[in-house]
Amino acid sequence: MSNRNTYFTAGPAALYPKFEEFLQDFVDQQLGSISHRSQKFKDIYRFTDEQLRTLLNIPAESALMFTGTASEIWERIVLNCTELETFHLVNGSFSKKFSQYAEALGRHIHVFEKPLGEGFSYSEIEVPEYAELICTTQNETSTGVQTREADIHKLKRGNASKLVAVDMVSSAPIPELDLSLVDTAFFSVQKSFGLPAGLGVWIANETCLQKAEEIGQSKSIGAHHRLPELWAQSKEYQTPATPNVMGIYLLGRVAEDMNKKGIELIRKETERKAKRLYDYFEQKAGFSLFVEKPEHRSKTVAVINTPGASSEIISALKAKGLIVGSGYGKNKDSQIRIANFIATGEEDIEKLLEACDSL
Hints:
Aspartate Aminotransferase, domain 1; Aspartate Aminotransferase, domain 2; five-stranded mixed β-sheet
């Protein structure tokens, strides 16, 4: 066990501490062979649904649905919830990809783009009149920038007639997002939930469903995972197609474990670890923080400018069994990205910073 690596990568990431125990339970019960139309599967779906609703405070009226990936949900939202125009807040690669999916699906896209490393505040956002959907990224994984929950909430309150979608892929369940206010949110499991990739989670309200049904009367809303079918099946703890049963089971077990600990305690620990990381690299000679404004710094993905080639630092840490990520895209060679997910304990952060002392 002692020679195992400690992962600080932004996804796939460090596995949840009890992952092996939960996986063994799945294997012991032979759940990989059950029918997804069985009562046993319905019980698994129901359990995961209940635990996630508790963890994230998801309203009973909203649907909780499963897809193959979070990227798939970009397409589902655009197809099911828009006819003509979308509006995107872009400040990194993943928020940009959301807009590119909408454009590829024939929507007229409006983009408010900030330079990499900068975040959005509500007061500066002007939503185009005819945009049907406002696309936000709560945590931009490529740049380590967060959009504060309060700004997202104001965005919805100020544009009540428009749908608001929130990508919380690399931050859920940490943000205190009001899911009774925003219309739809989504995430995947390979980041702060500490599970292998292969499962997306889509939360949507009745306004999204009504929009999909309305659009579907006159034009295509896709063929796979159409919202009306996903919604109807989810209310029976079922899925239209054969799902990732193992992913759903493991997510339920992880969410249950988080609920036992308490989300407030988890959030406080995450903030404490993030502060430790940022304080350290702000002081360390040669290094600097990519996101200058403290209020826009992600709690879950810290992006650090390196004094030389980031590959040398990554290699030096890897030799000590500590795996950090490189910068994203054009910043690959000049930055490191350090994930501060729930599976990464305070002792892991200290171990990493001790290793950085010798760089």
